[in-house]
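Quick one, tokens below. Sequence please?
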């Protein structure tokens, strides 16, 4: 009763009720802007593996991604075949190069390996074999260049030390004993654990001998014997000491040239030929007299 009486006392004008209903029905500009993106929203994104919750989702995912999967598998298969062929081809080339290396003896054969199969593991060995063959053929300039090229191209190769020593040996073969001595000394300092260490030591000793430094050469061999008493090269070092001693004595006391004394011309027998050994004088054999021819008989008178 009280509410009804209050409503009767404060009646709402009809115009105000109409305005309120219009405000509720009409959308504000902000609400229109918010509603616009919802109406123009893009299509749903593709389903990912995490969105799969049941068989229907799995079938839908396969329908969407079947073709990309097939393309990816095809590309992967082609890539695998390409890599396999490349590896097989490289393996075949490596085997061919190794076979050629084992059967090569001439410089031209080693050059063929380095030209046809530069990437094969046997190619560096072919380069080193080429330099060694050139050395054996007496082509010391070419051999030295080949050894130097090997060192530049393969500084970390297991046989680089052999190429370094080869350069010193080429200098020694060309009688460049000063350059060879430096090469041997540098090798001895830097390659103390090399299997070619003994060869470098003996090369140093030879160069010192050729330069007339016999005491230094003797010290080289004595030091090697003292440091390597059980080494197979020790016997060779002892032999080298003997030759150094002989060479030193020969240099200090050169032998006088042999002189041949000939007798005076006046006392020399006339029929004796000039020979180094005393030959018996040759006696002239008298010629046999010619048989006498009988005279013809005188003609008789009739």
């Amino acid at each position: 009763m009280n509410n009804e009486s209050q409503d009767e006392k404060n009646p709402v004008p009809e115009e105000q009720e109409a305005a309120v209903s219009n405000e509720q029905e009409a959308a504000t500009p902000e609400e229109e802007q918010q509603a616009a993106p919802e109406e123009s929203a893009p299509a749903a994104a593709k389903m990912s593996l995490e969105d799969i919750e049941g068989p229907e989702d799995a079938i839908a995912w396969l329908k969407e991604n079947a073709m990309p999967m097939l393309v990816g598998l095809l590309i992967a298969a082609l890539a695998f075949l390409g890599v396999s062929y490349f590896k097989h081809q490289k393996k075949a080339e490596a085997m061919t190069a190794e076979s050629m290396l084992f059967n090569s003896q001439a410089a031209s054969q080693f050059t063929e390996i380095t030209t046809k199969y530069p990437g094969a593991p046997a190619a560096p060995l072919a380069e080193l074999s080429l330099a060694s063959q050139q050395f054996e053929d007496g082509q010391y300039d070419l051999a030295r260049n080949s050894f130097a090229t090997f060192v530049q191209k393969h500084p970390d190769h297991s046989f680089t030390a052999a190429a370094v020593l080869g350069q010193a040996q080429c200098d020694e073969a060309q009688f460049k004993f000063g350059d060879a001595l430096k090469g041997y000394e540098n090798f001895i300092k830097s390659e103390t654990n090399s299997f070619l260490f003994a060869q470098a030591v003996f090369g140093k000793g030879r160069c010192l001998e050729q330069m007339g430094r016999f005491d230094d050469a003797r010290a080289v061999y004595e030091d090697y014997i003292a440091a390597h008493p059980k080494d197979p090269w020790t016997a060779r070092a002892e032999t080298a000491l003997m030759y150094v001693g002989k060479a030193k004595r020969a240099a200090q006391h050169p032998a006088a040239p042999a002189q041949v004394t000939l007798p005076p011309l006046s006392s020399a027998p006339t029929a004796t030929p000039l020979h180094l050994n005393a030959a018996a004088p040759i006696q002239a054999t008298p010629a046999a007299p010619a048989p006498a021819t009988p005279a013809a008989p005188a003609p008789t008178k009739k």
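DSSP finds twelve helices and no strands in the chain. Residues 58-157 form a domain with the Serine Threonine Protein Phosphatase 5, Tetratricopeptide repeat fold (CATH 1.25.40).
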